Amino acid sequence: MKSVIFDVLHLYYLPQFLPVAHCLKKAGCEVSFLLHEEPEISPITKKALDEEGFTYAMVNDGQEAKAFYANKQPSWIVFGNAPDDAFTQLQEQGIKLAYMQHGIGPKACYYVTSQFPFDVRFVEGDTRKQRLEEMFPNRRFEDVGYAKLDPLFSEDKALQSELTLQSIGLDPTKPTVLYAPTFFPSSIECFPKDWPAEMSEYNFIIKPHFFSFTKAKYAKQRALLNAWSTYDNVYIGPVDCYSLLPFMDLADLMLSEASSTVFEFAALDKPVVWCDFYKVRWSYRGLFKFRMGKRMDQDLALFHDLCEQAKSPKEVKDKVAYCLANPSAKSAYRKKITLEMAGKTDGKCSDRITDFILAN
After folding, report:
1. What is the pTM of this model?
2. Tens digits of per-residue pLDDT, 93-137?
3. Measured between alpha carbons, how far is 91 from 234 in angstroms, rounded to an integer?
4. 291 — pLDDT class (breaks 50, 70, 90)
5. How wide is the angle at C-alpha 345 spanned by C-alphas 340 and 350, nearest 5°?
6. Superfamily classification of domain 166-341
7. CATH number, domain 3-146+344-359, options 3.30.559.10, 3.40.50.2000, 3.40.50.300, 3.30.1030.10
8. Are 244 and 264 in contact (CB under 8 A)?
9. What letter does residue 106 receive in the DSSP assignment?
10. CB burial of residue 91 (10 Å; 0-12, 13-18, 19+)
């Protein structure tokens, strides 16, 4: 029997890993998770895996992780990011290493992490596969699609969420906007404390990045989130809510910056407003703006076709109103870019990954 261990560096890897883990388990594989200690977050990760019915172990750092794998000798280890080069020693012991990038956004790290010699990288779409093959001709890439989205397209009701607007205290007669800001660069601090009052005709589901909740440097973001949470038309997804998928299913429109979630939401053929304004740390301003450029990738150009662009907080309300009145305006672009960035959206990406692991 093949054994597969998923390497969970961060809690937000789980939505990508879980559909595949369930598929592998169903196919008869021994499946478990290795968690890297995250202060305040690890109990949430453990609770999530308990509820999903998976076993797990915990390590404090990469060195402990490597020793754990060397002792356990699994058939496969699945990573959500590139590990230290020392992990190639595991391959010398016959352990195979797979890579499922935890997002499909425009950051340059999406590509450069394939410098690590994984036995296979599972890729989302032929366009990105071709680009990766050009950059790394000696690596193996398999186009399987974006497994994270399987629950939204699968016919398996066990994968579907039971969340409703009523269950989170929102008005089902109002259009619903999902605001999914990242932690850096973020648009959160650009909005006023009374922003929900300005948008009172809409429900707001706000799901910040985990770091906005947990990192000391983002205290100003938390202060705004706390202020917004007092409004009746706002629901803020708590830190222990590790998946955005149920909220994506409920929402009519998404607000976000240049992040992976934009491509995920667009795959549902729903409109997106791109918040193209950010609160940037001093070390990324002025003469240091090149650092911001290094964080982002040329795929940023896709956002102009995919989204309605808001260049300031004042433009957001009009852009939201336009998108909700014209939900099909960019439908053709969404379908084209989804094929390029997410690949197949048939609910069977996890099956393709499982088939590959079983065959290798």
Report:
1. 0.86
2. 999 999 999 888 666 678 889 999 999 999 998 888 999 999 999
3. 49
4. very low
5. 110
6. CDP-glycerol glycerophosphotransferase, C-terminal domain (3.40.50.12580)
7. 3.40.50.2000
8. yes
9. S
10. middle
